[in-house]
Write the structure tokens for this entry.
Amino acid sequence: MKHVILDCDPGHDDALALFMAMGDPDIDLMEVTTAGGNQSLEKVTKNALSLIELVGEKVPVYSGSLTPLVKAPKWAGYIHGESGLDGVKLDSPKTEVAGTDAAAEIVRTIMDHPDKYVTLITTAPLTNIALAALLEPRICSRVKEVIMMLGAVHTGNVTPVAEFNAYTDPEAAKVVFEREWPITMIGLDVTHQAICTRDVQARLAAANPGLAEVVNGLMDYFRESYKDEECFPDPPTHDPCAVAYALDPSVVRTVKAPVYVETKGEVTCGMTVADLRAQAPKDCRTQVGLSLDTEKFWNMVAKDLANLKVGGRK
Ligand code: RIB
Ligand code: CA
């Protein structure tokens, strides 16, 4: 069983990651924390609450930092739309957030549970995670592992070398990579293999007829955004790759490598530099994803979607 805090910015692909985390019997989703990224903090938090209610789950949501640590916020409405989940009409949430200080909540949860109990899965800029590590450094040796959708070993998406979650808050990413916790970076080298083709989408929709309208609405919109903005014929579903890795590490091929985050470069700011030159040092705590077992991945996503009850019924 993985006891998970999911830090996210729903976001079309975050929605699939959240569905997986709620649908998989091997994940105890302890709480969800939100950070601005795909849209403003207010919008992604509302989306997280609505997605959880949609499937009749009860998971506490804590909103986090309004802005990145240093950079001015620049949300990704050009991909995720004005609401952050354009393409679907979800009911406004009836539940309130459980709190508005995600960093403090992450610290409390990790410190209140046994050593190596909590797994941090992140699918957003790392602002909340960095703040938590600065607030209480002891969490970095206590947490079981950090699995993040972020970065890239090779090419970026927001710039030629930087991926959106790292680019949005590079200072936070630098803080996180410089701490002693074990990190698995699931970057674009992996997630650009998680392409939701129309055939895959049909399979995911069929996995849970009660959720089909939402899955189709999300992926149809996501496809048009990726066509227009990044010339992808079908959308890469980044965030579920991090949850899939947490459930079965064999789904991603990884290699141990030190990772450094560029925060100063005029052209390279937000770049995650993985040093693949030689054998990683023995004490290297970071590893980066290089490829995805796509068949195993989509089987996992479909299985978890099938477990969800829409509105409390399957
Ligand atoms: O670059 C892709 C990442 O940025 C994903 O997490 C997506 O949801 C956006 O947050
Ligand atoms: Ca995300």
Remarks:
- The chain has one domain: 2-306.
- The pocket of calcium ion (ligand 2) is lined by residues 8-9, 11, 13-14, 37-38, 123-124, 239 (CB under 6 Å).
- Residues 212-230 form the longest helix (19 residues).
- The beta strands are 2-8, 27-34, 61-63, 118-122, 145-149, 183-186, 252-256, 259-261, 272-274, 286-292.
